[in-house]
Amino acid sequence: MFPLCVTETLNLTANMLIGNMPQNLDNLVNLKNLDLSSNSINDILPEECFQMESLQELILSNNSFYGTIPQSYENFQGLDMYLDGNRLSGVIPPLSEGSLLNLEELLLNNNQLSGTVSDLFCQLKTNYHLEDLWTDCESRQIECDCCTACF
Fold first, then answer.
1. Which sign, positive or negative, has the C-alpha torsion 144, 104, 54, 65?
2. 40 has a pLDDT exceeding 60
3. Arithmetic mean of pLDDT over the chain
4. Rounded-to-integer distance, Cα 138 and Cα 47, Å
5. Alpha carbon distance, N-terminus to C-terminus of the chain
6. Cα-flanking dihedrals φ and ψ of residue 50, to 5°?
7. How far apart are CA 36 and CA 28, in angstroms?
8. Whole-angstrom Cα distance, residue 28 to residue 22?
9. What domains lie within the chain, and their CATH numbers?
10. In what order do the strands lie in the sheet with 132-135?
11. SS3 string of the chain?
């Protein structure tokens, strides 16, 4: 048996997880990849997921996460954040200058989000590494001048 604190990848995709988000994930201080996609997790997005310093890939797609995206999402230091296919609502929180500079992919589509995507996201595409920004802009729920895919 190995100690969980050295775990770098936790992939529980399609494991029929039901209910709340697993607790104490922030104890996995070396975690780089967290994939809980395609389960039935029915919970709010935990702020600690966005504050884990070593996390590079956060994949929470296709669950039943609900509520708003916490403002702490802008503290995420990783490359990929997949929040698509949930029941998230409200507006995409504003982005502060200097946030999400390492982000390469942000998937927010197939939720119940609304509003306007901040121009700072467009700057991340132009001046930094953001390649994919997916939202529900085709249905006009979200206004986005720089999304790479609209649903």
1. positive
2. yes
3. 94
4. 29
5. 44
6. -90, -5
7. 15
8. 12
9. 7-150 (3.80.10.10)
10. 9-11, 33-35, 57-59, 80-82, 105-107, 132-135, 149-150
11. CCCHHHCCEEECCCCCCEECCCCCHHHCCCCCEEECCCCEECCECCHHHHCCCCCCEEECCCCCCEECCCHHHHHCCCCEEECCCCEEEEECCCCCCCCCCCCCEEECCCCEEEEECCHHHHHHHHHCCCCEEEECCCCCCEECCCCCEEC
- Residues 30 and 32: their CA atoms lie apart, in Å, by 6
What is the model's pLDDT at position 4?
63
**Comparison of pLDDT for 45 and 6, the residue scoring more:** 45
Tens of pLDDT, residues 53-88: 999 999 999 999 999 999 999 999 999 999 999 999
Backbone φ and ψ of 123, nearest 5°: -65, -35
Residue from 27, 136, 145, 19 nearest 10 by CA: 27
Does residue 1 surpass a pLDDT of 50?
no
